[in-house]
Amino acid sequence: MGRPQIIASAVDNPDRTRGWTSWITTTDHKKIGIMYLATVLVFFILGGVEALLIRTQLAVPDNTLLTPERYNQILTMHGTTMVFLVVVPVWAGFANYLLPLMLGARDVAFPRLNAWSYWMYLFGGIALYASMLYSPPEAGWFSYVPLSLKQYSGTNGQEAWIYMVHLTGLSSIIGAINFIATIHNMRAPGMGWGRMPLFVWTILIYAYLVIVALTSLAATVTMLLLDRNFGTGFFDPAQGGSALLWQHLFWFFGHPEVYILVLPAFGVFSEILPVFARKPIFGYKAIAAATVGIAFLGMLVWAHHMFATPMSTTVLAFFMLMSFVIAVPTGVKIFNWIATLWRGTVEWTTALLYCVGGIATFTMGGITGIFLAVFPIDWQLTDTYFVVAHFHYTAFGASAFAMIAALYFWWPKMTGRMLSEKLGKVGFALMFIGFHTTFLIQHSAGLSGMPRRIYEYSETSWTWYNFVSTIGAFMIALSVAVTVVGVVWSLKRGAIAGPDPWKANTLEWFTPSPPPENNFDVVPRVRSVEPMKDIRREIEQRTNAEQRYRSGQPMLH
């Protein structure tokens, strides 16, 4: 019997592909995560340009920059892009990259399925944007019937919207199954449910919500496709169908979708806050339980989007009360985040600033949601700019701030280089001021009666609201530009990060930066919810070399 060959240096795998082909054929979860995030950035810029066109059109009364048809198309593309092609897949991107590393796994459960999921997402986005070459959809991101039926939206743009929903929905459902299988079966030794990182908890619940909500949406848009092209009448009252059926089915997806957007953002906050407060997260179990509670209650409030439709007072009261109740677990999370920062040795990094800004912004959006949950008030404010402002405070406020916080926190792990803190803080200031300049004043516009989805107005008392809001939108765009410059600068000249530049808590910081293809040569045993603190303590005891963060001592970056 021959003896095994002993190799003293790294050996290249002759079958390993290099260059761009290594990216398009990869099943490595880290590369797929980066491909998700890069694609999200492209769609985020496209959706942002569309937002600037909308705000520029509305900056002054009777503006003729856009025709009504073009405005409807851009409004539809903006909402669809941001919901389906940016905020949902951005969490798929971060989860792809981080989940196996946080769990101590070497990949996700089904790597090839994971790659297929990414390509379905990309082709869904291409299907939507290819419609720009002929006739984009123009029935809004919610595609209410009868507006989205053939007699009112006769072009094929609506079909492109339906195919996009099918492809991106399939991508999300496959990805969710992969995340659930990975979390249930591939945790490191010792990592019970009570020691799992809170970001992983939120991705687990996000994945279950995706399966429930997006399968419902897939069935709904299939019915729309059949109505438009094969003579069925699911949504046509003349054929025994119901236009309200679309609203019920759409919002049964639509409201859980809000939590699909924000729950992973809450996971980001829960990971970053204790690292820079230099103390354990306050109320770990309460935060994990609140995540489950929000998801469950989130399935019971869809009809509060439909208070203006015919419903009995009993039904109205039920959905109003459920909308109040869901504020309880959300409030538990906010209380625990504040308690985590309270009397901590807080280090105001860019990642933490974005977290605190996101929590404050989301809290303001939650308060305005309490107003809208009261159905007599909703009757007054429905379809006004108050709703637009509320939606952006909750969905964009939590998700956009969190995804940039996540970028600044985990970029060193992904690339091995640090992002500039100075540029990051400039970008945060522009984002925070720009966001509130854009959307806070829209509450006043709504209270003054300005309807949403209008492409022009003659009411001069709304001019100031819209002009200020447009200035804020351009400040957000400048903030995004500063962040992109920081990313490019970091790739070329960023300081070398090392494996654990933040002295963080979770297992991904146990690996080199960036991690090797197999993630871990040795998977450590997990003994607490903060395994890296245990590992640093053990190294300290063995080597007498200090590993812990010390107040007043800057980290090596």
Characterize the structure shown.
- This protein is mostly helical.
- Helix content is 65%, strand content 0%.
- The chain has 16 helices and no strands.
- The protein has helices at residues 19-24, 29-58, 68-103, 111-130, 157-185, 198-229, 243-277, 284-298, 313-325, 327-341, 350-373, 375-381, 385-415, 421-447, 463-493, 531-543.
- The protein is globular and about 75 Å long.
- Mean pLDDT is 92; it is low at 1-11.
Please write out the topology.
Blueprint: H1 19-24, H2 29-58, H3 68-103, H4 111-130, H5 157-185, H6 198-229, H7 243-277, H8 284-298, H9 313-325, H10 327-341, H11 350-373, H12 375-381, H13 385-415, H14 421-447, H15 463-493, H16 531-543
Helix pairs in contact: 2-3, 2-4, 2-15, 3-4, 3-5, 3-7, 3-13, 4-5, 5-6, 6-7, 6-8, 7-8, 7-10, 7-11, 7-13, 8-10, 11-13, 11-14, 13-14, 14-15
Provide the residue-averaged pLDDT.
92
- Which oligomerization state do the chains in this entry correspond to? single chain
Would you identify the regions where 5 or more consecutive residues have pLDDT less than 50? Answer: 1-11
- Main sheet, how many strands, which sense, barrel? none
Query: Share of helix among residues?
Result: 55-70%
Tell me the distance between the termini: 52 Å
Shape: globular
How many H/I helices? 16
Core attributes:
single chain, 16 helices, 557 residues, mainly alpha, disordered N terminus, 65% helix
